[in-house]
Amino acid sequence: MKRTTTSSGLTMSLGIAALVALGATVALGLTLPKTVEQAEYSRLIAIHPGIAWTAYVACTVTALASIAWLLPRTRAAKWDLLAGASAEIGALFTALMLITGSIWGRPTWGVYWVWDARLTLSALLLALLLGYLAIRQVPADPDVRARRSAMAALLALVVVPVNHFAVEWWRTLHQGRSLAQLTPEDSLDGSFLGAMALGFLAMTLVYAWLLVHRVRVARLEEAREETALATAIEERRAEATTLAR
Amino acid sequence: MFRDALLVAGKDLRIERRSRVGLQQIVPFAVLVIVLFAFALDPDRGVLTRAAAGLFWVAVLFSALLAVQRSQAVEGADGVRDAVRLSGLDPAGIFLGKALAVAVQLLVLEVVLGVSVVLLYDVEVVGLGVLAGTAVAATAGLAAAGSLYGALAAGLRVRETLLPLLLLPVVAPVLIAATRASESALTSTSFEVSAGDWLGLLGVFAALYVAFGLFAYGPLLED
What we know:
The complex is a heterodimer. Helices cover 77% and strands 0% of the residues of chain A. Chain A is mainly α. Chain A contains 6 helices and no strands. Chain B is mainly alpha-helical. Chain B is built from 9 helices and no strands. The model of chain B has no long low-confidence stretch (mean pLDDT 87). The chains are: A mainly alpha, B mainly alpha. The A-B interface holds A 124, 127-128, 130-131, 134-135, 138, 140, 144, 147-148, 151-152, 154-156, 158-159, 162-163, 165-167, 169-170, 173-174 and B 145, 148-149, 152-153, 156-158, 162, 165-166, 168-170, 172-173, 176-177, 180, 191, 193, 197-198, 201, 204-205, 208-209, 212, 216, 219-220, 222-223.
């Protein structure tokens, strides 16, 4: 009756759908025509926007789950586990977003990194996520950890709009242009749009797949922690009785 | 609540007056950072003068980390944290008091550091009012956010390493806004920046974290 695996019908079908969508995205992305300005690199449009979107979805889920835990009416351990799992995957996708963005930026802008508002915000977001995950790592009673993590998530969430304005003004005051205008989105060809949409779908499916598994792993970890001490005591007792004989 | 805040702030400042940890360790550290910047960036090339505002605020940020850690360390010793909780003081008041004490110490540090920067970096101040306003608004934000994260990390075994990771990305907008606002008050910088917008942003940041602290400090103390 006790669950010993994180796999189920849901994750099987999610996983197959995610892999099929991912395969289709790669296939479609690699067959996209070369563009004049960016040559091969324009094909990154198949994955980079989808990764960025998923990173934001993951952060939103973490924020909402943290709020759900903090509200007394909806407080439940599952929200804490969901927030933590989503933040982990969010950090992964934010890092991937920065990496694929840099790979794309090199041929497009000539450099791996520019101090553009959006890039700077993404980097700050990754730092906030890493801080949040670090505080989750600290061993504590599940309830204490849940409260601490939820507060940390909210504290970080509060700063996001301020960060947005600070970085936006900082950059626009200096150079008065945003890279948003430079992306090829203004003149998107149909096949590019299709590949991008498929990328969104594939990345979201991968996220959902990983999320379900991660929440279940967290639940198993917790169950193990609960029983570990009792099992150890029982084993020692058993030893003691054999010795006494 | 305000009475409680003054009590807690008074306690912390009294401890500081007697121990002089801030004055004898954190302030010299901040000045040392300013001197180290001069070693790293050749003073003859004028980089120091142009970057003075940013370097000043980076030094303040690092010192703020130390000040917050000190502010929480005095709570951790001798079971003070439990005693404060048992005292029946309003958690919002405790938060305001802790933040106020950190803010007062940071303001003193900023004055010393500011004089050092003017003397060592060859900077001329034209807008003392803007500079003072920036210092007050930025310090309020730093102290409020710092006290919240300090309380969050307090009592954890990894607090010394965790606090910078948590606090620095959050106070990034303070660094940006305070630097830009200060630049407009120094002659050394050439670009036109409107200090008003940046001061407003600093104010919003401080207000957000003070408001957050007022109702979130209680649950944080329960850990």
